[in-house]
């Protein structure tokens, strides 16, 4: 992830987070190292070396490596970036009219793939660590509920009223749609990078539609 992407990641309400140059170097180094080696296998000395700072500079503010993850990297990803990009995602995807639910699913898939490609190291850290840190899971739930859930539900109810979708609870259709898309993203970027991406996108879309389309 380049410097420009990091600067975008550190924007909140169009105002840059006030970080010193050393703090930015530490954040960038931590993101790169945690993404490459994983949290457990990365030492603070490695982060300091990559950032070009003394290890004591990190410990001046953060007592442990987990403090670094939760106090620097995760706020960067969750508190800072996630609300901003959740709002952007909602505006880019949900604030439009679609001819069909399939068109809507295609837009979600395209949007999220582009996001993951741009911010892959950060997204990779999240997937690696979310199962081990309850704070991360709770923050994600809050952000999803605050910025995405109601708009997602409204679109589903709209296409149910049009007779396109099966008479299933909106929550179930959201779950089936999201788990299929996230599953493809995890497989593509973390497990099988050499897959035929476009072909698998199309198969995933048809899999979703076969499950939620009204018969």
UniProtKB/TrEMBL annotation:
InterPro entries linked to this entry: Homeodomain-like_sf (IPR009057), HTH-type_Tx_Regulator (IPR050624), HTH_TetR (IPR001647), Tet_transcr_reg_TetR-rel_C_sf (IPR036271)
A Pfam family assignment: TetR_N
Keyword hit for DNA-binding: yes
Feature: DNA-binding region: 43-62
Domain HTH tetR-type: from-to ranges: 20-80
Alphabetized UniProt keyword annotations: DNA-binding, Repressor
Entry keyword Nucleotide-binding: no
Stored SUPFAM superfamilies: Homeodomain-like (SSF46689), Tetracyclin repressor-like, C-terminal domain (SSF48498)
Annotated protein name in UniProt: TetR/AcrR family transcriptional regulator
Organism, as annotated: Bacillus changyiensis
């Amino acid at each position: 992830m380049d410097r420009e992407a990091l600067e975008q990641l550190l924007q909140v309400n169009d105002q840059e987070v006030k970080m010193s140059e050393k703090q930015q170097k530490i954040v960038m180094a931590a993101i790169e190292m945690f993404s490459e080696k994983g949290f457990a296998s990365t030492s603070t000395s490695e982060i300091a070396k990559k950032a070009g700072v003394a290890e004591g500079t990190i410990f001046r503010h953060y007592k442990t490596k987990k403090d670094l993850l939760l106090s620097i990297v995760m706020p960067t990803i969750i508190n800072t970036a996630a609300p901003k990009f959740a709002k952007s995602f909602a505006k880019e995807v949900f604030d439009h009219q679609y001819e069909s639910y399939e068109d809507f699913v295609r837009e979600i898939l395209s949007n999220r793939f582009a996001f993951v490609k741009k911010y892959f190291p950060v997204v990779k850290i999240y997937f690696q660590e979310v199962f081990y840190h309850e704070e991360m899971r709770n923050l994600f739930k809050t952000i999803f509920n605050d910025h995405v859930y109601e708009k997602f539900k409204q679109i589903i109810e709209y296409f149910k009223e049009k007779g396109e979708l099966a008479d299933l609870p909106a929550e179930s259709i959201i779950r089936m749609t999201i788990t299929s898309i996230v599953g493809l993203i995890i497989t593509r970027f973390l497990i099988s990078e050499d897959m035929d991406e476009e072909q698998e996108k199309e198969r995933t879309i048809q899999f979703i539609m076969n499950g939620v389309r009204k018969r």
